[in-house]
Design a protein that fits this description.
Neuraminidase; five-stranded mixed sheet; 1 helix; 18 strands; globular
């Protein structure tokens, strides 16, 4: 049985909050102690990515897997957005460094910068299971859409395809059990993600 899951954000008198619409029920999802939470991407296993603001107003990407939040910060960046996640667990988004936005791919715990050649600004917005990503870039003539292909990871794909079929029906029940007073009761696990330099393959051509 296929359970439709919709994510987004809403605003009330206390600010912005993320939400998950699952099986006809709205569930508020908030990063622990975050001042702003926005859900941007979800895969078939119910893993969610998005952004939150901390006390200082800085933006960070995050991954919510089960009831565990993990911060996703590109090393050395001023802010990081996590915009989408595919069924292999690859995450795409953007980060700010020295006043310039760069796209990124997070795969297997490693960040990879994705910059369109000669662009002033690059943002990755979505990725499918084949590793094809979409986004936009800015150059001196304006804004342009982009489509690019990353290197797929077949072993990861096989493992998650097998598991996702059994998980999709259970995901709403899991969220319901995690609720406390209408909100998700998460476990926060900080993580340090390694940066990997890829010689000759650090940008999209």
């Amino acid at each position: 049985m296929l359970i439709v899951q919709i994510i987004g954000r809403y605003r009330d008198s206390t600010g912005f909050h993320g939400y998950l619409l699952c099986g006809g029920s709205f569930i508020t999802v908030e990063f622990p102690n975050g001042k702003f939470t926005n859900l941007l991407g979800i895969n078939n296993a119910g893993q969610i990515v998005g952004i939150y603001n901390d006390d200082a107003g800085s933006s960070h990407g995050f991954l919510l897997s089960g009831d565990t939040f993990t911060t996703l910060d590109f090393p050395g960046s001023a802010f990081t957005d996590a915009n989408d996640i595919n069924n292999t667990g690859q995450v795409v988004g953007a980060y700010l460094d020295a006043g310039v936005r760069h796209g990124y791919l997070l795969s297997g715990g490693n960040f990879r910068t994705l910059d369109f050649p000669d662009a002033l600004d690059t943002v990755a917005l979505g990725i499918n299971d084949a590793g094809e990503l979409v986004g936009f870039y800015a150059d001196v003539s304006g804004l342009h859409g982009l489509l690019a292909t990353t290197i797929p990871e077949p072993s990861t794909l096989t493992l998650l395809e097998v598991g996702s079929l059994s998980l999709i029906y259970l995901v709403c029940r899991r969220w319901e059990k995690a609720l406390t007073g209408g909100r998700v009761a998460p476990v926060f696990t900080p993580v340090t993600v390694r940066e990997r330099s890829l010689v000759g393959d650090s940008s999209i051509s």
